[in-house]
Write a structure and sequence with these properties.
Number of strands: 10
Largest sheet: 7 strands, mixed
CATH topology of the largest domain: Double Stranded RNA Binding Domain
Order of helices and strands: EEEEEHEHEEEHHEHHHHH
Strand content: 25-35%
Structural class: alpha/beta
Length: 345
């Protein structure tokens, strides 16, 4: 289900302090890397890869020797990545349905590449879906390096790295929406007095690759589904009695009443308090999704400080300018977000 709201407050995560400027956290909706047409409501995830085989896949470097292991494979790497992708897409509730096709399309041969449109159409028809996301290729590598450290003990670092090629096929218009190569590495370390102790702290090679595949699958959801990102904001909680009153409204998530109070302060207060009221009004406008008003109040706040100087004034000017830069960047992605989430549920 595609969401229409562009941000939420994280339980109004307000941290009460004696400071004039009180921080809070909000969750902001970040657009997906690629915008699919809104008619795509359901997707099918497919393993279209060949089993990975290579040389010097697992590299082990010990204090006294080094060697490679080429006999340990993670043949369900692609399927685990797809399971991770399915889980993350379902968590985001962006598509109506996400399916994982249970059987790899190919497991032998030498041909890599696109799935035919006849197969795409048949799969979409089977699942009543409009698009297919496929793992078309992948490779991986692990490296374990053990060194003696100054106290005579051993320190080990294990890296698991991979690259995964993904394609998304739009069955509605028979176009490949995008092709992405994802590369990533996850690491573990261990410290101890013996090689046996070190080995017990590190995951087995297959387990490490499974963790990596799942992690990369979850991250790949950013390609096609917007996601919530926690960002820090803040507001001025003091300046006069009205600020204290508005702060209570904020803590009870009553932004409408807080706006009324700050607007009154802006209309009747002097320079310093006026700029703080404008900043708070910009924040409230962002919270309510009114970015034009947010920009307006940022400019009003800067204007009210134009003839003032001093250490605290400079701090408040900088805060307003940084907010203006952020708001400019945010406005650039709004059209993209509207394409992705639509105007309603």
């Amino acid at each position: 289900m595609k969401r229409a709201y562009l941000f939420i407050i994280s339980a109004v995560a307000v941290f009460v302090s004696c400071s004039t400027y009180e921080p809070l956290s909000i969750d902001v909706l970040i657009p997906a890397k690629h915008s699919l047409q809104p008619e795509i409501k359901s997707v099918v995830l497919i393993d279209n890869s060949l089993l990975f085989r290579g040389e010097k896949i697992h590299e082990i470097i010990l204090p006294s020797e080094s060697y490679e292991v080429d006999t340990i494979w993670k043949d369900d790497f692609a399927q685990i990545a797809l399971d991770g992708l399915k889980y993350e897409l379902e968590q985001r509730s962006f598509f109506d349905s996400v399916y994982v096709h249970p059987d790899p399309l190919k497991r032998s041969g030498l041909v890599k590449g696109h799935i035919t449109w006849e197969i795409i159409d048949a799969i979409c028809k089977k699942y009543n879906a409009e698009a297919v996301v496929s793992v078309d290729d992948y490779l991986y590598h692990t490296k374990i390096e053990v060194k003696k450290v100054h106290d005579g003990n051993l320190f080990a670092l294990m890296d698991a790295s991979a690259a995964v090629l993904l394609r998304t096929y739009n069955s509605l218009n028979r176009t490949v929406e995008y092709k992405e190569i994802h590369r990533d590495t996850i690491s573990w370390d261990a410290y101890g007095g013996s090689m046996a102790y070190i080995a017990a702290q590190l995951p087995p090679l297959k387990s490490a690759l499974a963790d990596l595949a799942n992690y990369m699958g979850e991250k790949a959801a950013d390609d096609i589904a917007p996601y919530w990102q926690e960002q820090k904001r803040g507001f001025y909680n003091s300046g006069n009695i009205q600020f204290m009153q508005a702060t209570e409204y904020v803590r009870s998530e009553n932004w409408g009443e807080a706006i009324k109070v700050w607007k009154y302060v802006f209309d009747h207060a002097k320079t310093k308090v006026k700029s703080r009221a404008a900043y708070n009004l910009a924040l409230a406008s962002e919270i309510l999704g009114d970015y034009e008003s947010a920009n307006y109040w940022i400019n009003e706040g800067l204007g009210s400080l134009s003839g003032s100087s001093g250490g605290q004034v400079n701090v408040e000017k900088k805060r307003l300018k940084l907010y203006s830069v952020y708001m400019t960047q945010r406005l650039k992605v709004l059209d993209e977000l509207k394409i992705q989430v639509g105007d309603g549920e």
